[in-house]
């Protein structure tokens, strides 16, 4: 078995952190486009955990979307200590959702804020030192993970119910920690929950899990007997893998009383072995990351496999026969966004809306169908793509037939013979 590479290096193979964050922003901006096409999200708004929560609820069909609400929640004041820390006296109300979701039974966690005076300032100083310590001990890992943590909130110890640190995919971007006593508690929490936040972003932009994950086998931990569904199992394995790597850097630093660092490697190995047995329940990018971090992402020559070489289970090829006279236009109520990576995410209004990450050819094809409804003749698109792609027209035609087959199946474009226009 080959030695595994570092977590941050493998993450960068899938997508550099700055690219992954931009793809996530494109997805949330698309969500806003579908409900409020005249509104726009700055990077700060697109990263805000409660803004993302509100857009996520709308995309899940749970509620409508009020753009004014997004501006309102983003006005909550924070203190910047290398990471934005919730400081506003209204934080308990604004952050009600994540506080409620992570709360143990019969508890109601409350955040420390500026109204708590010296107690808040003391906690803030420990957080600042914890962020500094993380960056000092593991700078590459910190650079990789902290871009996915948009906000941190410190819970009052007497209200937290023993929660050491927590995050939730329903309110991505925020990390909640118990009132810390030493900086290493903060650093470890940022590794643990930052790994989860990284996973949340990969799960919504890459090929990680599909709806079949809900019916997959459960993993049972040897250390507590808890049973986890596949998504939680993969997220835990990923976090323990990051913690195990971080533990190699901590040296003689004082650990927190609830530290998992010494147990991380053993637990990551246990979960990873189970995931390898059940890897067919994962999609290609998740299987590649699993094999790579477990030291098994190699081909017969011992060379590392690229993510594209770990294929998803065979599916039904989508194609259609198109004549030179077919004409395409964007379907009504369809929006799309292109990220800095060139990847395109598209969606159409439904209840709930349908969202699709498009492959390169389909992303190019939908980009030719202007938002103004101007029809595009297939033969003209073949000529244009032949010039841009620098491949033969027969290959271009085949690829465009596949691309438009995908777009038609998703009802993202409409096809009309020219004579019917």
UniProtKB/TrEMBL annotation:
Quote the InterPro entries the UniProt record gives: AKG_HExxH (IPR026337)
Protein name according to UniProt: HEXXH motif-containing protein
Q: Which organism is it from?
A: Lentzea pudingi
């Amino acid at each position: 078995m080959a030695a595994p590479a570092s977590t941050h290096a493998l993450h960068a193979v899938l997508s550099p952190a700055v690219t992954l964050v931009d793809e996530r922003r494109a997805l949330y901006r698309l969500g806003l486009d579908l409900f409020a096409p005249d509104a726009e999200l700055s990077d700060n708004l697109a990263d805000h955990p409660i803004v993302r929560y509100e857009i996520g609820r709308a995309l899940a069909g749970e509620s409508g979307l009020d753009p004014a609400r997004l501006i309102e929640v983003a006005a909550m004041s924070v203190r910047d200590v290398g990471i934005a820390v919730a400081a506003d006296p209204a934080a308990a109300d604004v952050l009600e959702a994540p506080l409620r979701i992570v709360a143990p039974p019969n508890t109601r966690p409350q955040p420390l804020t500026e109204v708590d005076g010296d107690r808040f300032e003391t906690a803030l100083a420990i957080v600042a030192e914890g962020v500094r310590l993380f960056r000092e001990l593991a700078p590459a890992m910190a650079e990789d993970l902290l871009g996915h943590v948009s906000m941190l909130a410190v819970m009052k110890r007497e209200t937290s119910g023993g929660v050491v640190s927590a995050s939730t995919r329903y309110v991505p971007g925020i990390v909640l920690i118990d009132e810390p006593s030493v900086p290493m508690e903060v650093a470890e929490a940022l590794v643990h929950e930052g790994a989860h936040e990284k996973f949340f972003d990969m799960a919504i932009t890459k090929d990680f899990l599909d709806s079949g994950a809900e019916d997959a086998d459960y993993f049972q931990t040897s250390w507590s007997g808890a049973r986890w569904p596949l998504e939680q199992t993969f997220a835990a394995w990923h976090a323990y893998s990051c913690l195990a790597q971080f533990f190699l850097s901590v040296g003689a630093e004082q650990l927190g009383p609830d530290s998992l660092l010494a147990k991380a490697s053993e637990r990551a190995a246990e979960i990873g072995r189970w995931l390898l047995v059940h890897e067919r329940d994962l999609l290609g990018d998740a299987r590649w990351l699993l094999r790579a971090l477990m030291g098994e992402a190699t081909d017969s020559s011992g060379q590392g496999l690229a993510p594209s070489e770990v294929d998803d289970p065979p599916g039904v090829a989508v194609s259609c026969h198109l004549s030179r006279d077919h004409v395409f236009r964007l379907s009504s109520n369809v929006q799309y966004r292109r990220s800095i990576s060139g990847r395109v995410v598209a969606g159409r209004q439904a209840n709930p809306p349908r969202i699709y990450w498009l492959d390169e050819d389909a992303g190019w094809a939908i980009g030719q169908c202007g938002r103004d409804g101007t029809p595009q003749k297939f033969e003209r698109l073949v000529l244009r793509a032949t010039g841009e792609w620098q491949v033969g027209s027969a290959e271009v035609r085949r690829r465009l037939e596949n691309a438009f087959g995908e777009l038609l199946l998703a009802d993202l474009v409409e096809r009309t013979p020219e004579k019917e226009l």
